[in-house]
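R.M. (postdoc): so does anyone remember the format we settled on? I'll just put the structure tokens first.
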């Protein structure tokens, strides 16, 4: 894939090779990552990257759109069929801009948003003081129950009635449990709020129907198309037909500029692939693997936040092991297992230290890892935790990790031969 770059710029080509080598030799368990199929890579690098277009099929601001129009229309049909949605807008550049376009569509400055706390699983774009949306809208946050570590729906209900938000957002970056969309939709209806679900992390599981879909319950559903959806670095938004016009206007010209047709082409392919039996089986195995890892780590005395997982990720509380998230993240990194430190609910540590790690199973499942390999990963993780700064221990663990992952190629042989 780097035939020309290798000639004109060996330096950057070498960095791509280096990154490919890193990915091939690592056990990738960052919960937001997945491996893009080769078709997604091909299409993301296709001639559609040359086409500048704004607007929608039949209403473009530039000429020469006839082929691109066919792509966008095909994407709409496939996406609506796949997710059972009334309307889709696939112009978003990412999950973040997908959220911004919904805000731009229906909110005014000063409007109140009720969303999940960042330190208990929510996302920056839902109203963190560090994100620009906090300068425009006011925010109130709900969280999880201290005992169950699941969303405290009674508290959410009470807060919604007190605060009367204009919008309620469900969806998170590190919440391992199913969300009761029906219940939140009912609360939103009672207080007259829009209900938006951000399914960035779980869109692949939803598409494959291995976990329930928010589409029937929410006014708007936003998503990144990387993460479990395993597609291009891009985004998408679904809504009820009654909001179709307002969403399209809020997206363009409301919040975005010209389109990224190369990633739109890649997403179009993924809307077909995600309906396949192959994808369904991978997504089903992702959930099986996540449960297996939670079970095995529990056997080794790790505490799993909320006691387990229903999706592709788990959050591990390391306090019982006497180590912090940073220490465990760095020790695992040294042995070739990539995870990220993560706040646990009511975490006593600072965000830069944390008491936990978040572990995702999408990438390793795409590579073909099943229960026996997950059991081995749990055992390696346990050995790492026992002596996370002992070099001899880490060297041993690295050997075990390498022996395991070397049997599962990242891409088919020869995929990147020039
Ligand atoms: C990752 C994430 C986003 C942002 O998606 P990007 O594609 O990274 O912009 C938004 N919301 C949630 C819940 C996420 O996890």
């Amino acid at each position: 894939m780097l035939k020309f770059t290798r000639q004109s710029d060996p330096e950057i080509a070498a960095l791509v090779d280096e990154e490919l080598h890193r990915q091939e030799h690592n056990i990738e368990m960052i919960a937001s990552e997945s491996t893009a199929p080769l078709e997604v890579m091909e299409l993301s690098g296709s001639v559609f990257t040359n086409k500048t277009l704004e607007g929608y099929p039949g209403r473009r601001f530039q000429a020469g759109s006839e082929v691109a129009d066919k792509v966008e229309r095909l994407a709409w049909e496939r996406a609506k069929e796949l997710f059972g949605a009334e309307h889709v807008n696939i112009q978003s550049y990412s999950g973040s801009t997908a959220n911004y376009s919904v805000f731009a569509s229906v909110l005014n400055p000063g409007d109140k948003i009720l969303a999940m706390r960042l330190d208990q699983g929510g996302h920056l774009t839902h109203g963190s003081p560090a994100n620009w949306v906090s300068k425009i809208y006011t925010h109130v946050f709900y969280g999880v129950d201290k005992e169950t570590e699941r969303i405290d729906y009674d508290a959410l209900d009470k807060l919604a009635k007190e605060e009367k938000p204009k919008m309620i957002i469900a969806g998170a970056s590190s919440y391992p449990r199913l969300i009761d969309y029906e219940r939140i939709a009912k609360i939103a209806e009672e207080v007259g709020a829009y209900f938006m679900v951000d399914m960035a992390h779980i869109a692949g599981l939803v598409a494959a129907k291995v976990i329930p879909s928010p589409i029937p319950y929410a006014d708007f559903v936003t998503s990144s198309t990387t993460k479990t959806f395993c597609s291009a670095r891009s985004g998408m938004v679904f809504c009820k037909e009654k909001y179709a016009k307002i969403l399209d206007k809020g997206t363009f010209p409301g919040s975005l500029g010209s389109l990224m047709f190369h990633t739109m082409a890649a997403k179009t392919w993924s809307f077909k692939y995600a309906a396949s039996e192959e994808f369904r089986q991978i997504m089903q195995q992702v959930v099986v693997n996540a449960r297996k890892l939670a079970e095995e780590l529990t056997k080794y005395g790790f505490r799993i936040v909320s006691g387990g997982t229903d999706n592709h990720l788990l959050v591990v509380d390391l306090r019982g092991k006497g180590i912090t998230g940073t220490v465990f993240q760095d020790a695992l990194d040294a042995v070739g297992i990539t995870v990220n430190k993560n706040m646990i609910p009511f975490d006593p540590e600072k965000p830069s230290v944390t008491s936990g790690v978040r572990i995702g199973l999408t990438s390793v499942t795409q590579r073909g890892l099943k229960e026996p390999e997950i059991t081995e990963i749990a055992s390696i993780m346990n050995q790492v935790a026992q002596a996370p700064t002992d070099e001899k221990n880490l060297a041993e663990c690295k050997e075990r990790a390498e022996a395991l992952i070397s049997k599962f190629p990242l891409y088919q042989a020869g995929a990147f031969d020039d």
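R.M.: ...and that's the designed sequence above, right after the tokens. Also worth knowing: Residues 32, 94-96, 123, 125, 171-173, 198, 200-201, 224, 226, 235 surround pyridoxal-5'-phosphate (CB under 6 Å). The longest strand covers residues 112-116.
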